[in-house]
Fold:
Amino acid sequence: MERTKEFRGISVRLARNYLENLGGTAVDDTSVEGEGWRADLSAEKVSIGPSLQLTEVTVVFEADDLSEAAFEELIEDFSRKAMRAGG
Structure:
């Protein structure tokens, strides 16, 4: 299974920290692995209107040894944390 989600207003560092709080271990600065899942992080600046830019973090969630329900729960738990941070 694979799912890609984008979040604005958070950093890669903060996203990595949230994934670690959900049971993952950082492999490097942009990858976190948990039991049966992996998340790869990337970031880019996106324009919002003519003069404002925000950081958009893309998280690619992958799972091989995880049930679909557990995979969805992981993504939902992460999303709730990210939405609170993004303000």
